[in-house]
Amino acid sequence: MTPRQRILATLSHQRPDRTATDGWFHPETMDMLKRHYRTDAWPDVLRELGIEGWIDIGPILMPPDRSHEDQAKPGHASGEPSVWLDDRTYEDIWGVRFVLGSDKRYRRWAAGPLEDARSVGDVARFSLLETMAIHEPDDYARLVSEAKYQQQFVYGTLENPFRRFWNLRGYENALMDYAADPEIVEAVYDRLFALYTRVGVAMARAGVDMIRIVGDIAMQDRIIMGPEAWRRFDKPRIAALIGACREINPDLEFFFHSDGMLTELMDDLIDAGFTVINPIQPECMDPVEVKRRWGDRITLHGCISIQRTLPFGSPEDVRAEVEHLIRQCGHNGGLVLMPSNNIQPDTPVENIIACYHTARDTTPGV
């Protein structure tokens, strides 16, 4: 099979020639792997590991005055345009301020433009919710078509509106709004979802195979805002977004990423229209049980522990976990294997190689 054929078969719940794999890597992990393989080219590393076929081609958002354009600082993990106020403090395109830690690896939220909003009127005065511009790649549909011809599986990525909401508002404020000030939640969400729906529709018209919605809504033991609040505020808007995109392409796959325990919302996510769930974090959810209960309706994407086996096990432990997942969850397709989030720099190279080479070399059972 070509990489594209393998991914399409997997998502159609047909047994592929081998298990499809994917991967997200911390920048230091990427450098570590490039040194190991003695190359400066990241595609060479992916080829050595056997990660094939995925390509992200999507629009970007930009303030209407384009004031942030070309101001991304090299090495910033998101890569998005940012205004840097000093060597550790920056504002993203929305005006949300972050501060990097002393080692500059990780960031913390510092301030948001809706932090002090007290009414729907305050939200309405934040004009970026209506005026943020969508910039599609030049010849977008042609780029997507050419990538498919080259046997790549094309996706686009949307931020989960909840993540943008709490970034704009502040985490504690956002959670308090769910409980005590629902009009502010609705005022922000109505505008955010309208914007993100336009981005999703642009992706669908260009012909992407899948749209990813990325951003955590869960902790390791619960849904952050509570399942009932998510069902009230988030689910109907996400379902409408998915529906608008599927009016253009009924076969469009929708991917949902959230770390943590999603068990209470799995049926709701499927009902809203998601067909791929990531990462099925094994510290919180048993991938075998997820496969048993929902595997006829979703593709499991992820499943490998980055808190236990991958960083702290031996290569033999890693191989055993991968083989177990393939036997139990990948026998009839519906499984894309990868670690459950970015592979961190404390992970031994030998374990990363063991993970991907085992998946590459293990034929899924009948």
General description of the model:
With 366 residues, this protein is of the alpha/beta class. The chain has one domain: TIM Barrel, CATH 3.20.20. It contains 15 helices and 14 strands. The chain has an eight-stranded parallel sheet. Strands 4-5-6-7 form a four-stranded antiparallel sheet, with helices on one face. Strands 3-8 form a two-stranded antiparallel ribbon. Helix 7 (161-169) crosses helix 8, helix 7 (161-169) crosses helix 9 (182-206) and helix 10 (227-246) packs parallel to helix 11 (266-272). The longest helix is centred in the middle third of the chain and has 25 residues, at 182-206. The protein is globular, with a radius of gyration of 20 Å.
The strand order across the widest sheet is 1-14-13-12-11-10-9-2
* Computed Rg: 20 Å
Number of continuous helical runs? 15
Q: Provide the succession of SSEs.
A: HEHHEEEEEEHHEHEHHHEHEHEHEHHEH
Classify the secondary structure makeup into a structural class. alpha/beta
Helix content: 40-55%
The first-level CATH class is given as Alpha Beta
**Distance separating the two termini:** 17 Å
Indicate the proportion of strand residues.
Answer: 15-25%
Overall spatial form: globular
